[in-house]
Write a structure and sequence with these properties.
The protein has 208 residues and is α+β, with helices and mostly antiparallel strands. The protein has four helices and ten strands, in the order ββββαββαβαββαβ. Helix 3 (129-140) runs antiparallel to helix 4 (170-183). It is elongated. It is found in: Gas vesicle.
Length: 208
């Protein structure tokens, strides 16, 4: 069966990109399908309902990271895993309908990246979670544009937040995380990213 559907990673403003990489569903090329000043970053796929394997979820993230690296400063509005469309025409219709939402989202994230900070306590330690959150707010929030909490999916996890940070402030945020590590040497700080700003956009498009 030929791969005639389009799997969408995210949307950029203007411009076109094309590069070879390991993409979702075994594809090896990523390119843009454009409508006016929006470009959907896609690869070809043989289904409109892809299964979210660990490998393909990682490929989805890796493609977005490569787009961010190639288009430095370009706003990338990331899509959640699984957005696939049966034709360019269908995809362009979706871009047309969601254009105002995409433009607003691009303004929100342009020139910014997402970084993640987790704080983990030792198994036998007792830690005041409110105090940890207060320390993080004092040290990290002044360097970030926004932050959002994530699930505390483990009893040992006392802080789990995503931060939207200006690219130009990345080094300052690195320093702030190091300061938090110094202040909270009773915790293990896990610092991740940069990621496409999943946590700070809320544009949902229906797969067809």
């Amino acid at each position: 069966m030929s791969a005639t559907n389009r799997y969408v990673y995210g949307v950029i403003g203007g411009g076109t990109i094309e590069f070879e990489t390991d993409a979702v569903g075994g594809a090896d090329r990523v390119y843009t399908v454009s409508h006016r000043r929006l470009g959907a970053v896609v690869s070809d796929i043989d289904t409109t309902d892809p299964e979210e394997t660990d490998e393909d979820a990682q490929r989805h993230d890796d493609v977005l990271r490569e787009v961010m690296d190639r288009e430095e400063g370009e706003a990338v509005v990331p899509m959640q895993f699984g957005m696939a469309f049966e034709s360019d025409r269908t995809l362009k219709n979706v871009l047309r309908g969601a254009r105002p939402a995409f433009r607003r989202a691009m303004n929100d994230v342009e020139g910014r990246i997402e970084l993640g900070v987790k704080a983990v306590r030792d198994e036998d330690d007792r830690v005041d979670r409110d105090a940890v959150e207060a320390d993080a707010e004092e040290i990290l929030e002044p360097v970030a544009e926004q932050s959002v909490p994530n699930d505390l999916f483990s009893d040992r996890l006392v802080l789990n937040r995503s931060y939207l940070v200006e690219r130009d402030e990345r080094e300052a945020f690195d320093d702030a995380v190091a300061r938090l590590e110094d202040e909270r040497d009773d915790l293990t700080i896990r610092y991740t990213g940069p990621f496409a700003p999943y946590s700070f956009v809320d544009v949902k498009i229906g797969a067809q």
